[in-house]
Amino acid sequence: MPRTSTQKILVVEDNRTQAESLRYILEKGGHEVIIAADGQEGLAILEKQRPDIVLTDVIMSPMDGYELCRNIKENPATRSIPVILVTYLYNPTDVIKALEYGADNFIIKPYDADWIYSRIIGTLESVKHAPDKPVTDPLTVSFSNHRYEIRSGRTQILNILLSTYETAIKNNCELQVADERLHYLNAQLQKAVSDLKQANEELHNKNIERGRLETALLRSNKKFQYMGSIIHHILLTQLSSIYHNMEKASFGQKDGQVDPGYFKKAYAMVEKALNIVRITCETFDPVVQTPSWIDLRELVHNALREIPQGSVRVDCRIPDTVKINAYPLIEKVFAELIDNSVRHGKKTTTIRFSLQNSGDIPVLIYEDDGVGIPAQDKKQIFSHEYGLSASHGLFLSEEILSVTGITISETGMPGEGARFEIQFPRGSIRIGTESV
Q1: Which secondary structure element, helix H or strand E, spans residue 185, and what is its range?
Q2: What separation in angstroms does the CA of 298 have from each of 301, 328, 331?
Q3: Cβ neighbours of residue 118 closer than 8 Å, sequence gap 6 or more
Q4: pTM of model > 0.70
Q5: CA distances from 296 to 73, 142, 282, 324, 435 (A)
Q6: Do 355 and 364 touch, CB atoms closer than 8 A?
Q7: Which pLDDT does position 396 carry in this prediction?
Q8: What per-residue confidence (pLDDT) applies to 140?
Q9: What are phi and psi of 85, to 5 degrees?
Q10: CA dihedral sign, ordered 43, 45, 49, 55
Q11: Which of 45, 44, 53, 49 is nearest to 6 (CA)?
């Protein structure tokens, strides 16, 4: 911190807090400080003792800093004492008035210790080495429709102008730093806004997905309850039929021989009941009751594992980049379709999976070259009365698909093979990175 030799400094300041702040700074620099509460008190002190320099506030009453400076400079006994104005004001008029009243320098508030010491040292050195002579012929200056008479000497004028320039440079540097800081904060704010926008979009998408899942869950719970009641009734009916056929076989014995027809019927019913239990156990398994994005081509290949190898030819024309949002149990639907083609198509040799467009939404097409579905049965194959009794399981397949809004319909030509169209709701099928 710059220092001078010990100086006696008169501080004229009507604000007690500002006065004590200046006292603290100056005494810390090794100077002796005298405090005056206003201009009149400052003049009274100057009559009794002579400070080395005066620091005075500008805005005071009843005598402001300009008047105090004028009184000091017009008095031959105090004219040589340097006067520094301490002010919040800073415009061309303030500078001209400082020169008009004979000020040697000025300090702009708010200030720091280094700034004050620098001005005190500079002013004292300037007055010591280049003292001004009394000005007899004042310089008249017109500015902003007002005339000023400048009685300051060349040293005072130079000091004021240098201080003005120094203050302007300091303020400009501070402004540049503030501008850079503002640009940095603005960039940070833009990034934060961009991040917030992205987070809002992600949250919005998650809320949409959550709403869709909640709707699907509610719908699936209702479906499961409905299916449970139907399956309970069907299994009860099937087991009762098995029991009655076994009973008839026992009572219908002739010469120790059992009518094989009853056992054949019972066996067929057991097979149907087991098929129902197998599908429904998987349907109600909580592990597979969460929809997720599944690779469609991989799903088809997994379903093919349940049929004997080489029994039919499979032509899968689904691209590698297609994914669907569904329950993993949908694999059993495909397996059921394939099983029906193999077991009931009679002459099936080829099964084909492909995608076709229905409007702007792709539709999954399943086809075989078997005997197809009779026209009179097309509307009945998805009913529980027809489907389960025929062991096709298409009733359960349709219910499993409908949980996530997927629909299935049979559109094949009788005698030319079965053809099923599986349509997905909007947003539940992806081709590459794009949802459709």
Answers
A1: helix 154-251
A2: 5, 12, 10
A3: 2
A4: no
A5: 97, 89, 20, 6, 14
A6: yes
A7: 74
A8: 72
A9: -85, 135
A10: negative
A11: 53
